[in-house]
Amino acid sequence: ISGMKVTIPVTINVNRNTQTITWNQDIANILTTDNITFNAEAKTNITYTSSNTDIAEVQGNQLVIKTSGEVTITATAEQTEKYEATTATKTIVITKATPAVISLPTVDPITYGTTLQDATLNGGQTDTEGTWNWNDDLTTLLNAGTHTLNIQFVPTNTAWYNTLNTTID
After folding, report:
1. How do beta strands 106-107 and 69-77 pair?
2. Which single residue of 82, 85, 145, 155 could bond 161 by disulfide (Cβ 3.0 to 4.6 Å)?
3. What is the C-alpha to C-alpha distance for residues 67 and 69, in angstroms, rounded to an integer?
4. Residue 76: its pLDDT value, please?
5. Ramachandran region of residue 145, left (φ > 0), alpha (ψ -120 to 50) or beta?
6. How far is CA 121 from the centre of its chain?
7. What is the pTM of this model?
């Protein structure tokens, strides 16, 4: 048969390239006071999400910590005409920080026969706001002499900081 044209239908599947996310941060265990900026890399733009925004959320590539706990952060590389979307995750355990003591409080001399209830803690400084309190029985009468007494620092921000127990003489 001469002069005839034959058309053969052909189906071509064009697949997107796969991509991987490179995320080399060691952020498995962090403190509530840490500043974390995510730095994962891929062929396309990456967005980050948190599994529990009550503990921590992500704004751009910055982790915003609200309290201690465990969250999983998902990095998602977007799909484009050329690349498939992909994800990578990191589970992070966020632990409360312990206040750093800059100076311990002092106490005025206690008169023999009085109790700690009548003694006031003066000064004392840490790297966060809070209050110093006695952590001993306030009704105990103290003998004359030097004593090692228990005190406690209670941070204002209890979501980020542990209570600190220590002693003074």
Report:
1. unpaired
2. 155
3. 7
4. 97
5. left
6. 31
7. 0.78
Q: What are the distances in angstroms from CA 6 to CA 2, 9, 27, 120?
A: 11, 10, 63, 102
> CA triplet 9, 15, 19: central angle to 5 degrees?
175
132 in Cβ contact with 151 (< 8 Å): yes
Phi, psi of 11 (to 5 degrees): -105, 130
Alpha carbon 30 to its chain centroid, in Å, reads 5
pLDDT tens readout for residues 104-124:
999 888 788 788 888 888 999
d(CA 135, CA 139): 12
The pair of structure tokens assigned to 128 is 């966060």
Task: Point out the residues of the chain with pLDDT beneath 70.
Answer: 1
Q: Cα(105)–Cα(133) distance, rounded to whole angstroms?
A: 10
What six digits make up the tokens of 135? 């952590």
Do the Cβ atoms of 42 and 24 come closer than 8 Å? Answer: no
Tokens in use for 109? 């001399």
Radius of gyration of the chain (CA): 30
Reference 61, options 50, 48, 43; nearest CA is 48
* Maximum C-alpha span of the chain: 125
